[in-house]
Amino acid sequence: MFFPNAFLGAIGFSASLGLGLAQKQVPLAHEDAPRQPNVVFILTDDQDVQLDSLRYMPFVKEHLIEKGTSFNKHYCTTAICCPSRVTLWTGKTPHNTNVTDVSPPYGGYPKFVAQGFNKDYFPIWLQQAGYNTYYTGKLFNAHTVKNYNSPYPGGFTGSDFLLDPHTYDYLNSTFQRNGDEPRSYEGQYSTDILAEKAYGFLDDAVHDLTNKPFFLTIAPIGPHSNVVIKDASPGRDRSVQFGEPIPAERHRHLFEDVTVPRTENFNPDRSSGANWLLDLPQQNQSNIDYNDHFYRQRLRALQAVDELVDGLITRLEGYGILDDTYIVYSSDNGFHIGQHRLQPGKTCGYEEDINVPLIVRGPGVASNYTTEIVTSHTDLAPTFLELLGIPLREGFDGKPIPLTKGEIEVTAQARREHASVEYWGIAISEGIHQVLSREHNTYKAIRLSSADYSLYYSVWCNNERELYDMSVDRGQMHNLLTHPNSSSSEVLIAGLPISKIVSRLDALLFVLKSCSGLSCRQPWKQLHPAGDVNTLADALDSRFDGFYLAEAMRVRFEFCANGYLVDAEGPMWEVQGRSAPYLRDGATWDEWSMNPSRASHISRLMAFYFKLSE
């Protein structure tokens, strides 16, 4: 990594400043304190992996990457804040939480409460298991100065939440502590205020460590855009302005020569992707210059987060509990700037938006180790529970992530190789150029990664499809399902035609788009109950060709919707006994199968299905 002297000087200054925020004399944990592990979870907002933001965080590198394990293939299930965070805290995919947007009617804190999760989610489970739980920073979108107490978020021993409409206002934040009234911090830097609160909660946790272990979550807004929301005046619409992030004053001159990585998919000469992305114009030079500035502001805003990591590690070490504590670092979703001609933002299913950091340091976790096993946000709640010795819940859509090097190596071959991705609703751009707000940015997708192949497959709500072989097309520039040179005979993997690959991917996506619990954790077994298919490579065996030719297994939408509406989702996968019904609109298997246009496909499919199951 390359850091200018001015940057190193700023680090030294700000680190000493940060230590002064909470320099209390806190007693060390008593020798007889329970040795159950503690957890510090740092959750950033909109932090990328693909654009190299972690390279510019020296304390994260020193304390976490070099002292822990990095999961390079970690994915969010939905590339926007609130649905992703609800998945993280419930272990369920968005189609099972039905929280699919950042605000009502399809999402936000009110939808989270209405779905009943405020009484049955991760912090509640932790408290039931005897843990103290602390949280500071952003919880969910649409958690506001007006609804913060209707009801209060459940499950926290201590909390100090950022509240809308000032959650993303770096210099005018509003926090709400425990049962107190909201408090404004106008003119003060949000991440520094958050750091002081985090250190205070850590003090509280250590004071009570003889009674209970703790789980502390710290959720800064960096490097999210600075958002200013202005209430509507009579006769005028409400104004929401997404500007570039604002760094702390001490960091504002850093990285003057840094630019967005100029990858193949950065502002390409020809359009790429599908649906509305194909209409995006190429960016001119002033647009590119602004986006480079936006990128630098993101890196600068992350420096206060980096210092926060250093302050936490220093305090944990001083308290004598660093070796008993897991430190986990992640983000809710990724981010793009210029890729596929996109303005700054998220909400797409491409790698920049869905691949997010996951770094774990703690007892038994290998140092300076990276793994390529596929993990997702559905796995984090199960992972934390297993780590802390708390029974798992049958309704989890994910499963625990192996954390030791030995476990990773043993399970690497048996663990799933895919992450499911889904999105409903509006695509938005951030910054000052070509402001975008597109409805029906709705799609289902799968990201597969193994030693043998690297694939992304998606179906949009207008039923356009994408397939990328990312082993040779890392930037997802050449859609193999629309590219002029593609054909049914073109080979993609091990000499196999694209049509054969797609038939398997479509069947897998067919299960995943409406899966729940076990069917999410073991989707291939829903297709092959005998248990002899666990990967795409297994499914590509020629003896299954007839099974996958069935048209009934083709994913499609009936129409585009901005939320999870079952009527729009097309055929659904269900399992009843040994049969494999495909249901839509609540129809029974018998009712659906009576449709004459499907009868021949159904009979062929079912005959082949039962033959395989014998």
From TrEMBL:
The conversion to 3-oxoalanine (also known as C-formylglycine, FGly), of a serine or cysteine residue in prokaryotes and of a cysteine residue in eukaryotes, is critical for catalytic activity. Its EC number is 3.1.6.1. It catalyses: an aryl sulfate + H2O = a phenol + sulfate + H(+). Residues 1-22 form the signal peptide. GO terms for biological process: phenol-containing compound metabolic process. The modification 3-oxoalanine (Cys) is found at C81. It holds the Pfam family Sulfatase. GO terms for molecular function: arylsulfatase activity; glycosaminoglycan binding; N-acetylglucosamine-6-sulfatase activity. Residues 37-390 form the Sulfatase N-terminal domain. Keywords: Glycoprotein, Hydrolase, Signal. InterPro entries: Alkaline_phosphatase_core_sf, Arylsulfatase, Sulfatase_CS, Sulfatase_N. Belongs to the sulfatase family. This is Arylsulfatase. It comes from Xylaria multiplex. The lineage of its organism: Eukaryota, Fungi, Dikarya, Ascomycota, Pezizomycotina.
